[in-house]
Amino acid sequence: MITFDSVTKRYPDGTVAVDHLSLEAPTGEITVFVGPSGCGKTTSLRMINRMIDASEGRILLDGEPVQNIDPPTLRRGIGYVIQQAGLFPHRKIVDNVATVPYLLGWDRKKARARAMELLERVGLDPAFAGRYPFQLSGGQQQRVGVARALAADPPVLLMDEPFSAVDPIVRTSLQDELLRLQSELNKTIVFVTHDIDEAIKLGDRVAVLRVGGKLAQLADPKTLLSEPADDFVREFLGHDRGIRRLQFVSTEGLRLRTDLTVTEDAGDSGDGAAEPWLLVVTGDGRPVGWRSGARPAGLEPYGTYVHGRDSMRAALDAALLSPSGCAVAVDGDGKVVGVATREALDAALAEAADG
Ligand SMILES: Nc1ncnc2c1ncn2[C@@H]1O[C@H](COP(=O)(O)OP(=O)(O)OP(=O)(O)O)[C@@H](O)[C@H]1O
Ligand SMILES: [Mg+2]
Questions:
Q1: CATH 3.30.70.120 fits 2-248, yes or no
Q2: Distance from the CA of 8 to the center of ligand 1, in angstroms?
Q3: In angstroms, what is the span from residue 37 Cα to ligand 2's centroid?
Q4: 298-323 tens-digit pLDDT
Q5: Among 69, 78, 102, 346, fewest CB within 10 Å belongs to which?
Q6: Can you give the residue ranges of every domain in the chain?
Q7: For the segment 253-292, what is each residue's pLDDT rounded down to a tens digit?
């Protein structure tokens, strides 16, 4: 656990970059610092590994003040990833990743083997190992940066806008990759971004900072979206707050109907004939399309969500993709487990709005 205990940073010119910051970044979780440019995110992050020293207050690493740990020792236990990866241009990818193991005096073979293992872990083709950074795309370089930070298996990872310089699609895949890695590695991660959507996607907890280095709110993403502490946070969270909050509402409790499906070869079953919409499924239970009582000839499009795994936002999206207004609930294999009608979605939304 990383603890900020009333930490202030005053630069020599008098700028107060961080002002009495107190918070905890729990072990094994992703804590995100988010806020507008100049609000002290980078300064806060760099005080953890003592690239910058605090003016007042203390930062503790598992209870031990970092001021008591000499910087090289401290940094061995802390991986650091920055924007545009910051790779050494004259070193091959494999040697970039092995930087810290080399510094720690591992033998070359072991260090390179570790580097190869990490390249694979972050989703890079081992064939890249012999290339130089300029021969990789921005997104690939960023993955190398993450691999390099993980090389000595540090318990703590500091990431300063690591995905800001890549396009939105690559950025999404890097975010997904980080979440997948984290589910295996359980590092204590402090992640800095100015992008609130990235903060909400990645953070177990999100610290919103305002200019002047003051903590505006510290909360899990769901609470942040539903209960912003003040106007600054509300404005920073931006549009669609209500809809975005639905991504944290489970579909587990959504009531499903199982009497609205017909198998495609079964012909018109008498049972559901009175229903305005019936979902046609294949023999092994996969959706084919909606049949409307008004237009029995053709099939209308459908939308699916994975029941219990996907959020209410996904269920609502699925419903909006179909003229039936119903969402098709499927299991992990894509087989239909039921249908969420408008009434069911309405009830679930009303409950979500309630709290
Ligand atoms: N060495 C320095 N001397 C004086 N002021 C500084 C120094 N470094 C940073 N600052 C100031 O401290 C404040 C916080 O800077 P910091 O880099 O921590 O912000 P940030 O939140 O990371 O911003 P960005 O999103 O633009 O990266 C800013 O006002 C900045 O101008
Ligand atoms: Mg910064």
A1: no
A2: 13
A3: 7
A4: 899 999 999 999 999 999 999 999 99
A5: 346
A6: 2-248, 261-354
A7: 999 999 999 998 766 555 556 788 999 999 999 999 999 8
DSSP state of 117: H
Half-sphere exposure of 247 (CA within 13 A, CB side): 12
Q: Which of 35, 33, 136, 125 is nearest to 92 (CA)?
A: 136
Looking at per-residue pLDDT, the higher value among 68 and 138 belongs to 68
Q: Kindly give the distance from the C-alpha atom of residue 82 to the centroid of ligand 2, in angstroms, as a whole number.
A: 10
Among protein residues, the one whose CA lies closest to atom 18 of ligand 1: 40
Question: CB–CB of 323/291 below 8 Å?
Answer: no
Evaluate: CB of 335 within 6 angstroms of ligand 1. Answer: no
Structure tokens at 121: 């872990």
Ligand 1 touching residue 183 (CB < 6 A): no
Fold of 261-354: CBS-domain (3.10.580)
pTM: 0.84
**Ligand 1 pocket, mutate which of 7, 10, 11, 47 (most atoms under 8 A from CB):** 11
Read off the DSSP letter of residue 323: T
Element (H, E) at 32: strand 30-34
Write the residue with the smallest CA distance to atom 29 of ligand 1: 38
